[in-house]
Each structure stands twice: as C-alpha cells, then as structure tokens.
Amino acid sequence: MGYISVTDLKKTKTLSEQLESDSELIVTRDGKPMAIMISVAGDTVESSLREIRRALFSAAVGRIRERTRENPVDQSEIETALRRARQDRKG
User: Fold this and answer.
1) 40 C-beta neighbours (distance < 10 Å), count
2) Inter-residue contact 6 to 34 (CB < 8 Å)
3) Do 50 and 88 lie in a common domain?
4) How many CB atoms lie within 10 A of CB 4?
5) What domain range is 27 assigned to?
6) Whether residue 76 sits in one domain with residue 48
7) Number of domains in the chain
8) pLDDT score of 13
9) What is this structure's pTM?
10) What is the mean pLDDT of residues 77-91?
11) Is residue 47 located within the same domain as residue 89?
C-alpha cells in the first residue's frame, strides 16, 4: 500500500506506475488520508465495486453493533420512537 497526494494525481504516468506496483494507494490531502485507490482489471470493475460496497456496508453495520453494545437502547426508547414515527406518518 502506497500513498499519493491529491496534487500528484495529475501526474498520470507516476500514478499509473505507483498503482501498478502497489495495487492500493491512499490518497492524501494536507497529509491526511481522504480516499483509497485500488487497481482493477477491466473485466472485474463491476464485481470489484460490488465487493467494496459490501465490505463498507458490513463495516458500517459492525460499527453500529459496537455502539449499541456500548450504549444499549432501552425498550421504552424504541417504543417512543416508533410511536412518534407512526404519529408523524398519520400527519
């Protein structure tokens, strides 16, 4: 895994060479990570994107579960939220 700054993205030859050698690049702005680039074969773009989305979704669910373990929601809070949502739907 390598790093490349946003300003260096304009250097397409360097970018291509670095991505080819590292397969994954962290794009940085002001020294802070802001994006991830990965190399993919032309015939696997759609499946790669599906897998990335699935992984991001799974990670988000994991973070929510962790927060719920740390701060469990009381049953009365759930019932209150449901009651409000149903009232809002009725108008």
Assistant:
1) 14
2) yes
3) yes
4) 19
5) 1-39
6) yes
7) 2
8) 87
9) 0.63
10) 91
11) yes
